[in-house]
Amino acid sequence: MRSHPIKKILTFSILPFLFIPILAFSGEFRVTPIRLDFDRGTRSGTITIFNEGKERLNVQMKAFEWTQDASGKDQYTETNDIIFFPKIMSIEKNEEKILRAGIRIPATTKEKTYRLFIEEIPEPRKAEGVNVAIAIRFGVPIFVKPLKEEIKGVIEKIELSRGNLNLTVRNIGNAHFIIQAIHLKGKNVKGEEVFSKELSGWYLLAGISRLHSTTIPEETCKAISKLDIEVRTDRFNLNGKLDVDQAMCMP
Questions:
Q1: Who's near 63: CB < 8 A, 6+ residues apart?
Q2: Low-confidence ranges of the chain (pLDDT < 50)
Q3: What pTM did the predictor assign?
Q4: CA of residue 218 relative to chain centroid, distance
Q5: Is 68 exposed, middle or buried (0-12, 13-18, 19+ CB in 10 A)?
Q6: Domains observed in the chain
Q7: Which of 78, 91, 9 is nearest to 47 (CA)?
Q8: What's the CA angle centered on 121, arms 97 and 83, to 5 degrees?
Q9: Contact residues for 150 (Cβ-Cβ < 8 A; gap 6+)
Q10: Rounded distance, CA 249 to CA 165, Å?
């Protein structure tokens, strides 16, 4: 079963006369598995947290219902639907501990989605100057499968105007899927490929649609006669086409 390493990555630029505080780095940890799936037969599971850092790790857990708004943006609301224990734990270096989680509600006709966040609690540090502790957290997805799972999606709309391509993908099923990538290929009147681009994706929950947008440079756009679109998900692929004329490329 896969595990997920959790590490800190900081990028910053040093400007003249800018005071840079001391950064207090705490431990690194990883979790396995990186998701839990519940159904009528499985209503609980365990998550193992490994402390791979050089110091003791303190973490706290919080459960949230995970939904998406009309634009597909993730929304989180604290919930009591998920039972988990412990709520706080301390893990010594090179040690692992078990987090147990379960679901209170039964499976229904539509998938329920949650995230159980494991959040680091930085220990106080003493140092000269300003001391900034950087905490990290990882949200383990929890899926409560519907009584009868139906995984379906469609490319709902494809529009190209002024060189701006807008593509809407809708989940018309009752359970999530993951858009792994969207591949765009533009061909000229001879069938030669003159444009290629890949857009990244994310989870798309049941009943939700998400708009994906990109810009095609004007001269490249004018050379395109047909645009082929492939949406690759973890469950299926979707394909679409758009006949392009130069008016769609004009600013």
A1: 78, 79, 80, 81, 82, 84, 101, 114, 115, 116, 117
A2: 1, 7-26
A3: 0.84
A4: 32
A5: buried
A6: 22-144 (2.60.40.10), 153-248 (2.60.40.10)
A7: 91
A8: 55
A9: 173, 174, 175
A10: 10
